[in-house]
Amino acid sequence: MKTTRLYLSNDTSSLAAGAGRLADAWRERPEIQLIRTSSRGAFFLEPMVERDMPAGREAWFNVTSDDLPRIVGGIGGTPVTEIPFLEQQTRVIFANFGITEPLALDEYQMRGGLKGLAEARRLSPETIIEELRLSRLRGRGGAAFPVWKKWQVAQQTGAEQKYVVANADEGDAGTYCDRMIMEGDPFRLIEGMLICARAIGATRGYIYCRYEYPAAARAMKFAIQKALEAGLLDFDDYPFDLEVVVGAGSYVCGEETALLESLEGRRGVVLAKPPYPAESGLHGKPTIVSNVLTFAAIPNILANGGAWHASLGTEGSRGTMVLQIGGRVRQPGLVEVPFGLPLRDVLDRFGGGMAPGARFKAVQVGGPLGSLFPESQLDIPICYDAFAEAGAILGHGGIVVYDRETNMVELARHFMAFTADESCGKCTPCRVGSVRGREILERIQSGQGAAEDLMLLSDLGETMKTASLCALGGRAPYPVETAIKHFGEEFRQGVKFTRPA
Ligand SMILES: Cc1cc2nc3c(=O)[nH]c(=O)nc-3n(C[C@H](O)[C@H](O)[C@H](O)COP(=O)(O)O)c2cc1C
Which of 67, 105, 316, 468 could join 474 in a cystine, given CB atoms 3.0 to 4.6 angstroms apart? Predict the structure, then answer.
């Protein structure tokens, strides 16, 4: 019997959308061969099944097991190149998604993988770092620091042992691109880390993976073993040791110094900087801690040249930004586009506008520490400079849309409570300030707020911003302040009296 090869994502989000049930239902069907790929990130279309047709891949959306005859018959598919959500993207880091089998090293290589590493093996450490400088790549974990500067410090700091650490803690609610890379294109992360190791002279690496990502940790371990067997982890003069370490479920362990404390087996608390990890990090040795997405951007830069990367995006933000759109939109999913697109376009073109019946109220960009934007501010371009000017952050690219049903006092309270829960406790403004902030918001929420409470929140916010040890306390006031700024009436309704002097 002629079998038809079908492609179905094995990504955790796809499984949540029903891909696993579909695979179970079709497992014994002799007329098909099911290939498990990564996801294209168009989660509103999942489970999505693809097959090869004479003119290229075609896709079927929101598939149920009853759709099999149609798909095998080639009826009613949409060419993948004509799916508007995908067609308008510039897939560079996510180029393999939905196409390759994640753990097939040969497929990774066939689609251009390992070219960057080959180039790095040929070049001197200084030349690799120069290529990174030309690329103008900035870290994708939130702080947007120029990558080449960190690498140069680590390279120039003399030490018999240096480390490379991938920050895969990905704690921002609504973000999942690191997880997708680890599950869906793990060799890209390994390649990026190897290039970094070669540039700075590191012999050991760790992938610090958040506890909630078991499939990602499994995929990474498997891919490391394959890379080892293929001899990829051997440099001419030394072997590179790479290991996955699973965290224990703490948001603040995504902060680099807390992460390193946790890696050393201590409680994850934030340390004062300097010294920065590039100079003195894990076990006091030069350590590059970078986000998964940052490492994943590096193979293409070495393969295509720094100038190629710098040709994408805007003046201060080069390359592509990976956005993860969620909340009350019609089309939640992962989007990779060059920097510069206005937020409104992102929501309309990719998010597809509001979910049926929902009306827009606000959008939060940059995770739980990110600012809220009302309708009137949606023309802001997606780039570091414009966001910094607005006192906002792009963070890790999380975009969550809220509808008119959202109670802004409750939302603000939720974010302050999040910081109170997750604070490592090392510095007073964050440890105590977040609890006091939550209490004030609870008073307002219960209608027992005093007129002074909004002023008190503002004073408290200033103290947390200026005196916290890290961005957890330093950024916690922003979602609260932007909620009050744009939706102040909801807060004033909870303020009933003036407290006696
Ligand atoms: C509270 C807090 C949580 C953080 N969580 C993460 C995280 O989950 N992943 C990440 O890559 N960076 C996180 N960061 C930023 C890291 O401290 C660090 O800047 C980043 O890993 C550096 O990588 P990059 O240069 O590639 O951005 C966090 C920072 C703070 C203050």
Answer: 468
Q: Say which residues have a Cβ less than 8 Å from residue 115's Cβ, sequence separation at least 6.
A: 299, 302, 303
Q: Is the CB of 269 under 6 A from ligand 1?
A: no
- Ligand 1 closest atom vs CA 143: 19
Query: Looking at the domain assignment, is residue 109 inside a domain?
Result: yes
**Is residue 31 domain-shared with residue 148, that is, in the same domain?**
no
Give the Cα separation of 364 and 342 in Å (integer): 14
Is residue 60 in some structural domain? yes
Structural domain includes residue 297: yes
Q: Ligand 1 within 6 A of 252 CB?
A: yes
Q: Tell the residue nearest (CA) to atom 6 of ligand 1.
A: 254
- In this predicted model, what pLDDT tens digit does every residue of 426-485 receive, in sequence order? 999 999 999 999 999 999 999 999 989 999 999 999 999 999 999 999 999 999 999 999
Name the residue of 256, 260, 273 whose CB sits within 8 Å of the most ligand 1 atoms, as the mutation to test its pocket. Answer: 256
User: What are 241's two structure tokens?
Assistant: 């040791």
Mean pLDDT of the chain: 97
Is it the case that residue 501 has pLDDT exceeding 70? no
Q: 325 and 191 in one domain?
A: no
Nearest ligand 1 atom to alpha carbon 171: 8
In a domain, 96, yes or no: no
Say whether both 164 and 264 belong to one domain: yes
Q: Using the mean position of ligand 1's atoms as its centre, give its distance from the Cα of residue 445 in Å.
A: 32
109 and 76 in one domain? no
Q: What is the DSSP letter of 391?
A: T
Ligand 1 lined by 207 (C-beta under 6 Å): no
How much is the pLDDT for 496?
77
Range(s) of the domain holding residue 25: 4-87
Strand ranges for 292-415 from DSSP E: 320-327, 333-338, 360-365, 372-373, 398-403
Find out whether the beta carbon of 276 lies less than 6 Å from any atom of ligand 1. Answer: no
What is the pTM (predicted TM-score) of this model?
A: 0.97
Same domain, 246 and 363: no
> What type of residue is 225?
Q
Check which CATH number belongs to the domain holding 344 and give it.
Answer: 3.10.20.600
Strand partners, 4: 32
Number of domains in the chain: 4
Domain identity same for 297 and 345: no
Candidates 362, 440, 454, 458; CA nearest to 401 is 362
As a whole number of angstroms, the distance between CA 123 and CA 428 comes to: 47
Same domain, 136 and 74: no
Nearest ligand 1 atom to alpha carbon 251: 3
Same-domain pairing of 333 and 285? no
Q: What is the per-residue pLDDT for 451?
A: 86
Cα separation, 105 vs 217, whole angstroms:
17
Question: What's the 323 CA to ligand 1 centre distance in angstroms?
Answer: 16
Which atom belonging to ligand 1 lies closest to the Cα atom of 144?
27
User: What is the distance in A from the centroid of ligand 1 to the CA of 110?
Assistant: 32
